[in-house]
């Protein structure tokens, strides 16, 4: 065994352990979702189902039309919200990255200040509901996350690394600001945009709080809020069954297995989307490289 082989084996072993630490919890969640609830209560969790049972998925998918509609709402909000957010935040970040912008410092302070402090829940609710009249519309699930200060500062830092000589040369060639932004800056900022896009789509997909506050129409309920309501129902039914006298209710409510089934339904689409973003990272780094 050579001197170079041993360090490589150690590195490979560490990465194998890290990979297992990431994969085993996912396998365990799938296993629990396919396990019998009574077996889980008696014997606890296991890496593989001891008693195969799909009652958890039958309970979660009891009304498939509502689940499909919730998936549709979440997909529309995530895609449309991510696209609008990227455009808005990229425009603000590009403005803040230009050292020749007169109001760069005041605008940077404003963005940073809104990251530290906000108007509060009650003023925000009054603004969105009474003044903007966005309650029970799909826009109330999109607009509050359109401009996230942290993501704006992240994009600004990335765009500041783009050489200003490129922008000056484009100006000397007669290119407008819009052409410079859309044809020069955005292609060079693809790695940063891909990173922010991934964070933004995860934020839209996982959000349930906005729908809890502003959505009353069943047709506009997103997936996460519907799963939240199912969990509340399961907790209520479980507590109610525990209060009944013995022998009056022998039905076992799929509590733990249903939780894991909901986790699979909620995380499944994002697990399928992530590899495309990973490839986009690599392609963005290649396209956005500046050769000296």
TrEMBL record:
<dbReference type="GO" id="GO:0005886">
    <property type="term" value="C:plasma membrane"/>
</dbReference>
<feature type="domain" description="ABC transmembrane type-1">
    <location>
        <begin position="71"/>
        <end position="277"/>
    </location>
</feature>
<dbReference type="GO" id="GO:0055085">
    <property type="term" value="P:transmembrane transport"/>
</dbReference>
<keyword id="KW-1003">Cell membrane</keyword>
<feature type="transmembrane region" description="Helical">
    <location>
        <begin position="107"/>
        <end position="126"/>
    </location>
</feature>
<dbReference type="InterPro" id="IPR000515">
    <property type="entry name" value="MetI-like"/>
</dbReference>
<keyword id="KW-0812">Transmembrane</keyword>
<comment type="similarity">
    <text>Belongs to the binding-protein-dependent transport system permease family.</text>
</comment>
<protein>
    <submittedName>
        <fullName>Putative aldouronate transport system permease protein</fullName>
    </submittedName>
</protein>
<feature type="transmembrane region" description="Helical">
    <location>
        <begin position="138"/>
        <end position="159"/>
    </location>
</feature>
<dbReference type="Pfam" id="PF00528">
    <property type="entry name" value="BPD_transp_1"/>
</dbReference>
<keyword id="KW-0472">Membrane</keyword>
<feature type="transmembrane region" description="Helical">
    <location>
        <begin position="12"/>
        <end position="34"/>
    </location>
</feature>
<feature type="transmembrane region" description="Helical">
    <location>
        <begin position="180"/>
        <end position="205"/>
    </location>
</feature>
<feature type="transmembrane region" description="Helical">
    <location>
        <begin position="73"/>
        <end position="95"/>
    </location>
</feature>
<keyword id="KW-0813">Transport</keyword>
<keyword id="KW-1133">Transmembrane helix</keyword>
<feature type="transmembrane region" description="Helical">
    <location>
        <begin position="257"/>
        <end position="277"/>
    </location>
</feature>
<dbReference type="InterPro" id="IPR035906">
    <property type="entry name" value="MetI-like_sf"/>
</dbReference>
């Amino acid at each position: 065994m050579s001197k170079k082989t041993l360090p490589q084996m150690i590195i490979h072993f560490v990465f194998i352990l890290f990979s297992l630490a990431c994969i085993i919890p996912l396998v365990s969640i799938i296993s629990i979702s396919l396990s019998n609830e009574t077996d889980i209560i008696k014997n606890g969790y296991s890496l593989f189902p001891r008693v195969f049972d799909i009652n958890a998925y039958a309970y979660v998918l009891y009304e498939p039309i509502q689940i499909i509609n919730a998936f549709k709402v979440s997909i529309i909000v995530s895609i449309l919200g991510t696209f609008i957010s990227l455009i808005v935040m990229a425009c603000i970040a590009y403005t803040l990255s230009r050292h020749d912008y007169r109001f760069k410092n005041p605008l940077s302070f404003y963005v940073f200040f809104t990251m530290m402090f906000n108007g509060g829940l009650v003023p925000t609710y009054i603004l969105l509901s009474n003044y903007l009249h966005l309650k029970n519309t799909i826009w109330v699930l999109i607009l509050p996350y359109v401009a996230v200060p942290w993501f704006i500062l992240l994009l600004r830092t990335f765009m500041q690394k783009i050489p200003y000589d490129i922008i000056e040369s484009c100006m000397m060639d007669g290119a407008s600001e819009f052409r410079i932004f859309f044809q020069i800056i955005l292609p060079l900022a693809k790695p940063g945009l891909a990173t922010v896009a991934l964070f933004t789509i995860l934020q839209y997909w996982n959000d349930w709080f906005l729908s809890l506050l502003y959505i009353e129409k069943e047709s506009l309920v997103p997936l996460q809020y519907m799963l939240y309501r199912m969990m509340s129902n399961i907790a209520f039914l479980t507590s109610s069954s525990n209060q009944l006298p013995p022998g009056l209710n022998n039905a076992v409510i799929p509590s733990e297995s249903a939780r894991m089934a909901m986790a699979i339904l909620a995380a499944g689409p994002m697990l399928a989307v992530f590899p495309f973003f990973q490839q986009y990272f690599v392609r963005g780094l290649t396209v956005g490289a500046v050769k000296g």
